[in-house]
Design goal:
This protein is α+β, with helices and mostly antiparallel strands. It is built from two helices and 19 strands. The longest helix has 29 residues. The radius of gyration is 22 Å and the shape is globular.
Length: 372
């Protein structure tokens, strides 16, 4: 008798589980990551007297990183690091706008700086002009542990090259290439890099396979397993981060122009598709006065965390289809910066995952009881 729960205790427990589960399920059904983007402050005014397709007007050329005249550069990628001087440093790629969007094959990695996280960012030039003429694409960056400085990683046009520097202003020297155990000819593509809370490094490339290194940023990395959901075509451009006790991935389906949000507790297994992350056709790129911009393509997401929560997203934005951006026209690409309510996002995700844990435990207990 002492091992049995009274009917009232059973009802109380069941009611608590149901309440938590129903509340979290309703929250999950109503909100996904796209709902946590915040209105963007207007830095230099909204204008239509600038390059771009009709859907992006009026817009603020002071947001993010761009060639306002569209006579020199197209920009892509974009990862922000806040420096010890309080300035914001963005690492991106650029190429000659006259070559159109396909000019990305010859892109170089660049460093730009702003006093304001949303911009405008001033291009300070190539990160490593003496290494293959500055060549670099799929640019991302991170702070290294133990006051080791910073790393910038490029892939796609180079096989996962890692550059390091004690200062965000350089000088950048090549540390080595990303390597994977058992993959002697592995070539990195669309790689996102994370320094995990446990001190290991984690990369997620275009193919969606989580890889872990306990031997430093260059690896070798061990393939753990897939993270991306099945059935969604043409996934690429993952960004991985850790916040609110969860590992997160946002990954874009270029053919459907839809990005998805995935979570995992250990960052290695049991990735859950949480639904819509962003869609350029939705009204999530909006200013504080209510004006909305609709870019044709929004790819290469990056995140800036402050106090453990995502504070800003960066996205590479193109105003027309890629095959319509031919160079020397009124079209191009830039890096946009969008505020994000990471505190509310992590708080809500914690509620959802807690409810899932309770429901899973209750299911396990019920099965065990039924088997007695």
């Amino acid at each position: 008798m002492n091992n049995r729960m009274s009917p009232m205790n059973t009802f109380t427990k069941l009611f608590a589980v149901m309440s938590l589960s129903i509340g979290a399920s309703a929250l999950a059904a109503e909100k996904t990551l796209i709902d946590y983007f915040l209105p963007t402050p207007i830095v230099s005014g909204l204008t239509t007297n600038i390059w771009g397709a009709p859907g992006v007007f009026p817009r603020d050329p002071g947001n993010g990183l761009e060639d306002v005249t569209m006579t020199n550069w197209c920009y892509w990628d974009g990862q922000i690091i806040k420096g010890p001087d309080g300035k914001y440093h963005i690492f991106a790629s650029r190429w000659d706008q006259a070559k159109g969007h396909n000019g990305w094959f010859g892109s170089v990695a660049v460093h730009a700086v702003s006093d304001n996280p949303v911009g405008p960012y001033v291009d300070k030039g190539m990160c490593w002009p003496d290494s293959m003429g500055g060549k670099g694409h799929n640019v991302t960056a991170l702070t290294l542990p133990n006051n080791e400085g910073y790393a910038v990683i490029v892939s796609e046009t180079r096989p996962g090259a890692v550059f390091v520097s004690k200062s965000l202003d350089g000088t950048w020297t090549m540390k080595g290439l990303l390597t994977v155990t058992g993959q002697t000819n592995w070539r990195a593509s669309n790689v996102s890099v994370l320094l995990r809370p446990d001190g290991d490094y984690m990369i997620v490339p275009r193919n969606g396979r989580v890889m872990i290194s306990s031997n430093g940023i260059c690896g070798p990395y061990t393939i753990i397993g897939p993270a991306f959901p099945r059935g969604i075509p043409n996934l690429e451009d993952p960004v991985v981060w850790h916040s609110g006790g969860l590992y997160h991935i946002v990954v874009n389906s270029w053919s459907t122009r839809t990005a998805y949000h995935l979570t995992s507790k250990d960052g290695k297994t049991n990735w859950v598709n949480r639904g819509l992350a962003y869609d350029p056709r939705k009204d999530f790129v909006r200013y504080t006065d209510g004006t909305v911009n609709h870019w044709n393509k929004m790819e290469r997401p990056g995140v800036l965390l402050e106090n453990g929560h995502v504070k800003y997203f960066t996205l590479a934005a193109l105003d027309v289809e890629k095959n319509q951006e031919l160079g020397n026209d009124t079209h191009g690409s830039k890096v946009v910066v969008i505020p994000f309510d990471g505190e509310a996002f992590d708080r809500d995700m914690a509620k959802i995952t807690a409810a899932e844990d309770v429901a899973a435990a209750d299911t396990t207990n019920t099965k065990a009881t039924n088997q007695k």
